[in-house]
Amino acid sequence: MRYQFKDFEFNSASLVLSQNGETVDIRHNEAKLLALLLERSDEVLSKEEILSRVWQDKVVSEQAVFQNISHLRNLFGNQAIKTFPKRGYQWQLETEPVSSVPQTNSNPAPAQPQTTVAAAAPKRPYWLYAVLSAIVLLSIAIMSWPEKPAEDSAVPAIKMAYIPLPDAQDNTDIALADNSHFDFTALTELETDYFEASAELEYPVLKDRHPFVLTGHTRTHDSQVYLDFLLKGPFGEWQGQISAPSKKHAVEQLQQHLKQPFIYDFLSAAQPPELKQANLLIAHQQAPEDLITLARLITTYTDTGEFEKAMVMADKLANIAQSQNNVQHTGNAYLYQSRILTRKELFELSAQKLALAIEQFEQIGDLKRLADAWHAQSWLDHQQEDYPAIKASLLKAAQLAFTAGDKARELDALTYLSIMAHKHHRETDKYLYLQQAENKMKAYQLPVYHFSKVPFHYAIFATKPADKEPHLKQVLEFSALTPDHWVAQSSRKQLVQNYIAQDRLTEAQALIDSQQTDNAHNSYLKTLLAQARQQTHAFISQAQRTFEQAHLAGQQSLSLDAALLLCSAPNSGESSPQINYDFYWQYINDNAPPYWRRANKNKLLALNL
């Protein structure tokens, strides 16, 4: 039987698909599945029946059905195949069967036998496509290959504001001079420590005139200069560490690194994780000895749960750093490996790598990275349920950060110790170290949004929603000027969920309406409220928007939350947006980390995920 739909024709006997007379290559099982869907287009076919008819006696998982359905939707559009939750799939496109025209013998001359359009078009071999693709890629590579004479003339100078870089040892600042690559503007009215502590308030004031702001610190240890830098842009931060025999060489290395155009693309627009990875991989291939770019690639792979790739790159970082005798990045590589192994819940191996990292950082007196390492050690101690060890690790991290003059790391260690004390039912300690953190915030005269972490922790300690509510409201008061700070976003989400649970929908609506920023977090709140009001169209639209925004921003947990809501949604009516259930199921299966699965265990079980 031959079928026509859209501009396609399919022969279910020969399993040949054509489009406008040209053969379309599809896999054998995809063709068998398409034949089954077309032959029984008036039925909803279960996954079990599809497996039985298409794969017959072969042992495969339901994943095979999802993948082949997705491939067919990519060819024919999402509306071609409809998913009926917990029932199966059904073909939806208007389709016409085509009858073959019989040949006649009235003409004595031998007529050319009539065949299907698909048969008339010879199937192109895969090797031909491979050769053509290789030629195209080679042509692009040749055309894109940089020409050395254009290096200095074609690229305009990068406009960058900077806060003079302080040196802790000799109390001097490093100034940056303009050159053919950079047009620097010194922000002499700002100090590095103040800007770092107030960036959530100060950068929005600067970004219209100075979208790229560079800041950092230098120190000297055993005649070697170490430079920590941070470049802030509208859509993120770029940071790294440089070591050199002198300040002059350190600045030269910094400028050489910051000449790379991809950094500013990275900071100037939101990029989904896949694009970030692709751009970082290209940048690494173009400058394989640039350890800062390689380190960022490792972090990106880790954040997206691609731990095997992350570990391969971390091994590469360790090998290159050791070949360069770069102790700083050797220590960083071991710390990355430890974090990856911790995410994979291989805690014993993680501890071994962490010990190696600490050894490297001690060699160069890197107190900040030592603080990070001991902070990481506290989580390994937590796996052993050893609270005294947790406390010792975090107090050591806080002391190292204090000695380094790093207020943020010091406060993180103290507030995290408060949380760990709460987890281990140490009532005295959880209040003691939270109070210590608050006192230090006052002593350091930090902006008010830092203080929002204090009531945020009190809300964690409270057991009843009614007891949490006043603390969460205080968080929002303290963060009124920084509504997109993570503490404010988390508190707002908890309040909205509490209001919905108590059927206080008007208060939930007012809280949502108070936010002007169009981002994934605020879209998620609108999704929850539409769900509570049983507004199916608004719920699906907002959930899909949340997923898109979160995925673009690289917010994996939030994109998973939105995907889970969509998977659990009832089948939408004709007037509502369609839900591609398979896509979201597949996304969860491919991307959900263990901690998220544990937190959503019951919901996943209900959906057989």
Question: TL;DR?
Answer:
By secondary structure, the protein is an alpha+beta fold.
Outline the fold blueprint.
Elements: E1 2-5, E2 8-11, E3 16-19, E4 22-24, H1 28-39, H2 47-55, H3 63-76, E5 81-84, E6 88-91, E7 96-98, H4 117-120, H5 126-144, E8 158-162, E9 165-166, E10 173-174, E11 182-186, H6 192-206, E12 213-221, E13 224-233, E14 236-244, H7 247-258, H8 262-268, H9 273-286, H10 291-303, H11 307-323, H12 327-343, H13 347-364, H14 367-383, H15 387-404, H16 407-423, H17 427-443, H18 448-451, H19 453-461, H20 465-478, H21 486-501, H22 505-513, H23 520-532, H24 536-553, H25 556-567, H26 581-591, H27 594-599, H28 601-606
Parallel strand pairs: 8-11, 8-12
Antiparallel strand pairs: 1-2, 1-7, 2-3, 3-4, 5-6, 9-10, 12-13, 13-14
Number of strands: 14
Q: What's the main sheet like?
A: 5 strands, antiparallel
Q: Give me the CATH architecture of the domain at 152-270, please.
A: 3-Layer(aba) Sandwich
Provide mean pLDDT, rounded.
88
- How would you sum up the global shape? globular
**Uncertain segments:** 101-132, 134-138, 140-145, 147-153
Q: DSSP helix count?
A: 28
CATH topology of the domain at 152-270: Rossmann fold
Instruction: Kindly state the percentage of residues in helix.
Output: 55-70%
